[in-house]
Design goal:
With 148 residues, the protein is mainly β. It contains no helices and 14 strands. The strands form five sheets. A four-stranded antiparallel β-sheet has the order 8-1-11-12, with no helix packed on it. The chain is elongated and about 55 Å long. Belongs to the UPF0587 family. Keywords: Metal-binding, Zinc.
């Protein structure tokens, strides 16, 4: 990041690729909305996504966690920051896209809309603070953890 001190997810929707853990079918373009609350039919809780696998008809659920409150700063000293957590049942996330962010420039100006383009970069000029800001490399990774 050049000229940007922090970014955090702007959109409350995560576009994902989901794999059924029962039959292995991969579902592309599945949007999980942080503000959607779906009650389980069996009384197991509230989810942001409830769907059936197209192939085996098994139930799959997902709950978004840590969105939108976590932000990435270069001060954290890591190449990656946990910006979203997704708890799943009956499926696993095999890919996701977060494209829209907000941020703060080094001059303290808010950056209301950071949209990462197809090649993983963003560049803009902020008139109020006479700054050029950019993100030249953006990548995502998935880490799996087990619930206790």
């Amino acid at each position: 990041m050049e000229g940007i001190t922090s970014i955090k997810p702007f959109s409350h929707i995560v576009n994902t690729q989901i794999k059924c853990t029962s039959c292995g079918h991969v579902h592309d373009g599945i949007c999980i909305d942080y503000h959607t609350a779906i009650e389980s039919k069996r009384g197991r809780g509230t989810f942001n996504l409830v769907m059936k696998c197209k192939d085996c008809k098994r139930d799959m659920t997902a709950v978004l966690m840590n969105l939108p409150s976590i932000e990435y700063t270069e001060e954290n000293g890591s190449d990656f920051a946990k910006l979203v957590g997704i708890k799943t049942t009956g499926c696993e996330i095999t890919g996701f896209v977060l494209e829209k962010f907000t941020g703060i420039s080094e001059g303290g100006a808010p950056i209301d809309e950071i949209i990462i383009d197809e090649d993983g970069s963003f560049a803009d000029y902020i008139d109020a603070t006479d700054e050029t800001v950019s993100i030249m490399e953006y990548d995502t990774k998935i880490e799996f953890t087990r619930s206790k």
